[in-house]
Amino acid sequence: MRHVSQSPYAEILGDRLDQLHPHLREYFSSLPEGHIGIGEGTFSRVGTPRRWLWPLLRPLHERSVIYAGWQLSVPFRVTNRLIDGRVVSEREFLLPGQGWTMRDAVSVNPHGRLVDELGESGVVAASFAVDVRDGALRMRSHTVGIRWGSLRVRLPRFLSPVVDLTESFDEVIGRQRVLVTMELPLVGRIYEYAGDFSYRIEEKKP
Questions:
Q1: Each residue of 1-31: b (16+ CB within 10 Å) or e?
Q2: How, if at all, do strands 35-47 and 30-32 pair?
Q3: Separation of alpha carbons 97 and 135, rounded Å
Q4: Nearest CA to 124 among 184, 193, 166, 64?
Q5: H or E element: which one contains 184?
């Protein structure tokens, strides 16, 4: 019998996991040992059209946190692995003439909150409130911190971006949809990506 580890999403949601659309329940529940999750689809938009933000976002781009630019109709591939209770993901953006990869790891912290560590060495970390609405997963950031050397600095609310994520399933097209937005106080939306994809679980190759 294959061993199945519980995902951090399942740990946080508890009985609410059953309120998710069946396809999302599979996506957020668990992965059998020796298997990975593969999603392939297209982002209708990614980044920010505000060009003046691109140089400011470039350091995070170089650390695999967010894309510093603006593109439409971007094919992508996401690979999910469940490692010691953490969902470790890589999102490969197939950009025109180049590739770029976003990396993150989701876990439950000692305080019982869902935490997403983004980029190389978890340079940015955000804790989230998680809910289920109409079969979709909704997440909103509670706190955001930045790693500075060996220190983790929590951003004050007036400087902290608010990240919203919605994962849903579209019965019409038979694909999963994702929408992520990042808003900064006094500035407004500074980053987003939205798209749809198909998802499958397959055995890891040796």
A1: eeeeeebbbbebbeeebebbbebbbbbbbbb
A2: unpaired
A3: 37
A4: 64
A5: strand 175-184
61 pLDDT higher than 80: yes
- The pTM score is 0.91
174-201 per-position pLDDT tens digit: 999 999 999 998 899 999 999 999 999 9
CB 75 within 8 A of CB 88: no
Bridge partner list, 102:
91
Residue 134 makes CB contacts below 8 A (sequence gap 6+) with 168
Q: Which amino acid is at 178?
A: V
Cα–Cα dist 6/58, whole Å? 35
Residue 85 and residue 106 in contact, taking contact as beta carbons nearer than 8 Å = no
Q: Domains in the chain, ordered, with CATH? A: 4-203 (2.40.128)
Taking CB atoms within 8 Å and a gap of at least 24, the contacts of 171-177 are 174/198, 175/41, 176/23, 176/24, 176/27, 176/39, 176/41
Please give the backbone phi and psi of residue 149, each rounded to the nearest 5 degrees, phi first. Answer: 65, -125
Task: Give per-residue pLDDT as tens, 15-41.
Answer: 999 999 999 999 998 888 889 999 999
Q: Give every CB contact of residue 147 below 8 A, 6+ residues apart in sequence.
A: 121, 122, 123, 124, 125, 153
